[in-house]
Amino acid sequence: MKTRTAVLHTQPGQYEVTEVDLDEPRRGELLVRMVAVGLCHTDDHVAVGDSPAFRLPIAGGHEGAGVVVGVGPDTPGWAEGDHVVLTFTAVCGECRMCSTGRQNLCDLGGRLFSGGRIDDPTSFRMTYQGRPVVQAHGVSALSEHTVVDARSAVRIDPDVPLERAALVSCGVATGWGSVVHMSDAQPGDVVIVMGVGGVGINSVQAARAIGARAVIAVDPVELKRKTALDLGATHTAETIEQGTALARSMTDGQGADATVVTVGVVTGEHIAQAVDSVRKAGTVVLTGTGGMRSAGIPINPTMFTVFQKRLQGALFGGCNPRWDVPNLLRQYAAGTLKLDELVTRTYSLDEVAEGYADMRAGTNVRGLVLLD
User: Fold this and answer.
1) Confidence (pLDDT) at 31
2) How far apart are CA 329 and CA 63, in angstroms?
């Protein structure tokens, strides 16, 4: 079948809506009609060249939700009409990481970089003018229709609005889990969130939910600081230096118990500033990325050791998609997690490039593409 999708043809470049040929679903695959897709910085890293494009063209998007409209042969447990959230971390359920409760680090993840089928990286589901089209993270959510491996989909309650469920596909789960799963933050702690865009704003929500006595939202953009106050921050600051001073004023000069780094384009300097912001035995959770070509963190290794600080990487906030995605949506249904307030503006598929430009300009907390 034919479908329209947002394709990156050159790097650096911008996503252009392109009609491509899409295979019918094979064994273990689902044909999904996409309904809503969040605009996440990860896809933009590839467009601007922060992260390498291993192969072009690339059909982008990884944060989305839709409805199953086709099920491949010999694919038990799935049916047309199922509502699904796509996950950029496929889950096999059998490898060491999955078996020890770390589905976000499933061994299948490494295969998704090929942009082809998980079990056959030389086989592609999309083509354009006879050329293979790479599916970003194995899903290419920014499409009217897409075919995905069933291991990259999570079935959800059909009563949950898909335009809200899409947000849990990446940004909400990543930000939430960075605090709940990765930071060791406890009730009564002081937590800094460094960068409160589409991911960090959910770290703010999580810090509030666990009972942190102070949640300091750091961002140079006034819109994001205001939104953070609305969603649980107790204090805001324009710079990490100001945020660190606030944390120290509350802790006898010690610093924050945990700092979560969710800056859109992370540098080594950002990480060093975050390390400086936490107390002895404090934790820095590194969730944002800065592109695969960046390297080096200007921290003093002796001071890092003697103050026994911890720098913790976090992919998908350490979440397990099969559990955390439905659980977060249950919290939304119960009114304990806010999703409606996250979306600053909605776009059509044809406005994808504009949406990413708005994200870079800081005018959005989260932009959302609606396809239905």
Assistant:
1) 98
2) 15
| Global confidence as pTM | 0.95
Supply 6's token pair. 């947002």
Cα 271 to its chain centre, rounded Å, is 19
What's the one-letter identity of residue 262?
T
CB within 8 Å of 364: residues ≥ 6 apart: 39, 197, 198, 344, 345, 355, 358
User: E strands along the chain, which residues?
Assistant: 2-8, 16-22, 29-38, 58-59, 63-71, 83-86, 126-128, 131-135, 145-149, 153-155, 190-194, 214-218, 235-237, 256-261, 278-286, 310-313, 343-347, 366-370
Name the more confident of 289 and 132. 132
What number is the average pLDDT over the span 102-112?
Answer: 92
Q: One-letter amino acid identity for 9?
A: H
Give the confidence band of 325 by pLDDT, cuts at 50, 70, 90: very high
Amino acid 289: pLDDT: 86
The pLDDT, as a whole number, for residue 293 is 67
Contact status, residue 8 vs residue 46, Cβ threshold 8 Å: yes
**Which pair of structure tokens corresponds to residue 19?**
């009609």
**Phi and psi at residue 20, to the nearest 5°:** -125, 165
Domains and CATH numbers, the chain: 2-169+338-370 (3.90.180.10), 174-315 (3.40.50.720)
Phi, psi of 250, deg, nearest 5:
-100, -5
